[in-house]
Amino acid sequence: MRNTNTAEAWVKRSLAAVWHPCTQMKQHELFPLVAITHGKGPWLFDANNNAILDAISSWWTNLFGHANVHINQAIHAQLEKIEHVMLAGFTHPPVVELSEKLSALTGGHLGHAFYASDGASAVEIALKMSHHFWRITGQPKKRQFVCLANSYHGETLGALAVTDVAIFRQAYGDLLQTVHTVMSPDLRQALPGETPAELTQRAASDVAQLFAREHANIAAFIIEPLVQCAGQMAMHDATYLQLVRELCDRYSIHLIADEIAVGCGRTGHFFACEQAGIWPDFLTLSKGISGGYLPLSLSLTHEQIYQAFYRDDVRQGFLHSHSYTGNPLACAAALASLEIFSSEQVLEKNIDRALELNRAFAWAKADERIEHFRQQGMILAFDVKNTALHAASLTASFGPQLFQQGLQAGVLVRPIGNTVYVMPPYILSAAETQMMSEKICSAYEKTLDGRKSS
Fold this sequence. Notes:
Radius of gyration: 22 Å
CATH architecture of the largest domain: 3-Layer(aba) Sandwich
Distance between the termini: 29 Å
CATH superfamily of the largest domain: Type I PLP-dependent aspartate aminotransferase-like (Major domain)
Number of helices: 16
Number of strands: 16
Shape: globular
Number of domains: 2
Largest sheet: 7 strands, mixed
Strand order of the largest sheet: 4-12-11-10-7-5-6
Strand content: 15-25%
CATH topology of the largest domain: Aspartate Aminotransferase, domain 2
Structural class: alpha/beta
């Protein structure tokens, strides 16, 4: 009888039945799928039991390793009680406890949590809530949004409208609301002789000019604080957040902080906004909030927003909903993750881990083919110069080739264009961090040398 459980068989069955995300499926004729059977700690294991170090936390979600004992136990304990109940007209202990703990982490500034399942949906909630707030408070003209150049906030239609990455927008542009796009404070864009402070001020001035003209029509400004992750890990100074917070206050415009990728300790503080000493009107979380275990997202907001919807008229309530809003299992995973942050002093230990990460990639800082080496907490990135890519005839295929070479070396690394980055789980030892760097270095050299992965 034919064996349908081999790695090759699983890949064939997946290609026949599964439409994979963020993928041109035809590319899998050249770059085969990898059949993963299990994981442990920072490691993934394929169907042939090859170990792969997860340097990007499985799309920036897995904070404390695969098959984490504490999170496993929390989910199992919750599974014995209730797996799911609708959150319309009902509540349950995990969603209450999680909401209270997140509010406490903001110092009570953001005390109301609205739940969904994925990051784009959390962004949709913030956008809709802002729009609806202005409508029911007598300013219906304020319905436009502002985003940064090269920003990414998700791929549902509302989130995609405030996304400025052409490859995601080009097929759906005629479905999207028109938005304002302002200069990114990306520190790589400094003009000759321009200091980071001057670039930051120049970017903020672009916002100020727009707000001065259009504030009567603008509902909210959305930003990924400190790092535009899908925008090739573009990093900016925390001062920029202070400046836009002041501008939003001056012109009565909501500030939405999309912390889906940069929250949950990734930039050094639990919330990236903390580094600027400001709080937004809406803060979105997903990815790492459940430790990378279960789909969960939320939008936090403050009392003024909440009270605007607190009325007798049902039509003036916020009537957005998802079937799995506030799922108990996902909330239990999130509570277990927050317990790990506290009991294992994760943020404090990440200071040393970030230094270890920087030291491990000293080779990249010294490589003349590399530019814009940068780091924000547990996110490290660098760009391979276009001259190096041209010399290796890799202008269009560098990312896929490095990904394949990485798998051959035993590391999961997924470049964005010519940007190589790592966002590892918070559990790597110094030895594992060094090993990750060495594997990526080997894959990088083989890719530029034109050696094909087998």
